[in-house]
Amino acid sequence: MEKSEATTIEVAETSRERKGKAPLLAAVVAAEHHAKAAAHKRGVAIFDLILRISAAAAALGATVAMGTAEQTLPFFTQFFQFQASYDDLPTFSFFVIAMAIVTAYLVLSVPFSIVCIVRPVAAAPRLLLILLDTLAVTLATSAGGASAAIVYLAHNGNSDANWLAICQQFTDFCQRVSGAVVGSFIAVALLIFLVVLSAIALKKH
Amino acid sequence: MEKSEATTIEVAETSRERKGKAPLLAAVVAAEHHAKAAAHKRGVAIFDLILRISAAAAALGATVAMGTAEQTLPFFTQFFQFQASYDDLPTFSFFVIAMAIVTAYLVLSVPFSIVCIVRPVAAAPRLLLILLDTLAVTLATSAGGASAAIVYLAHNGNSDANWLAICQQFTDFCQRVSGAVVGSFIAVALLIFLVVLSAIALKKH
């Protein structure tokens, strides 16, 4: 290795006279450039893996927090006991399903992220990850946005539509649900970062 | 050009004997490869521009449809006239603001898309577009998802939370609002396609 570098420098200095060695020079320079780009891309891929696991944890937390959100009030009438559960509102059911899909995708995409670490210059797994990450961003954002709209309504109500706030009664339920929405937004932020990171790694060096 | 190609073939056939011509060969091959990749990327960039203008039109349509949604019912009491407007619901106000931002971004990004057509191998404008397109996807999806949740509630109500459906009275208003939500989802689909397309164009050839 030492020797070939010395040759490179020598060839560079006297390149006009010794054109016969030029292909060797080109090959050495290309290999060095390639190795540098690969090291850079490997670093990005390791960061990608860490972010991916964090996003999976956030998405899992959001799914579990929403899926276990229920509250039974301590008072009841003769005919009726007041209780709230996430599946009373279709939007929250959608949230649980969508975030479960996102969590499953993020866990299943870890092997592809590892492939990107092992073979940093391969473009195909990265393109696949960008495509699926973008779809995951959309799914997680729609779940988070829709639930945020309903949580806002549950907290504040709406006098024009005559919808009353229910959070005065169901305090714990509302806190749990709000936490789940925050978790989904953390997952969304990490996923956006993942897409941008993959795009940077795809860039030609 | 014809002549240099002939030289290329000759050199390729007798490359072992005539190493001195190899740099010329390499340069010619590299230039041809570069031109091919540039033509491919230019095609992608033109498609990008068309999709971008379509997405801007969809986003503009959604903004205007929501922003002009209001209905006054033909009956009224002595004290009260029944009317619905988009700004009665904070989620719909958010929708108008978010979709207006997305529309403005899409219109302002057209020059960058044109730069990608003129200089197809430049990576910097494409990376910028991927980053901002991903943020626009998130904004449009959150607006569309949140409004879809409220529209669903307006259509169906929710007996558990004691929220009544308002679409039996405000038919036109609900139709207009639903149309706006559909428009935002069309814009989201086009934006996802734009992100994937930019990623493909960034790929090394």
UniProtKB/TrEMBL annotation, chains A, B:
GO terms for cellular component: plasma membrane. Its main location: membrane. It holds the Pfam family CASP_dom. Residues 42-190 form the Casparian strip membrane protein domain. Coiled coil: none annotated. Keywords: Cell membrane, Membrane, Transmembrane, Transmembrane helix. It comes from the Eukaryota. The chain crosses the membrane at residues 49-69, 89-115, 127-154, 180-202. It is a multi-pass membrane protein. InterPro entries: CASP/CASPL (IPR006459), CASP_dom (IPR006702), CASPL (IPR044173). The keyword Transmembrane helix applies. It is found in: Cell membrane. Belongs to the Casparian strip membrane proteins (CASP) family. Homodimer and heterodimers. NCBIfam families: A_tha_TIGR01569 (TIGR01569). This is CASP-like protein. It comes from Sesamum alatum.
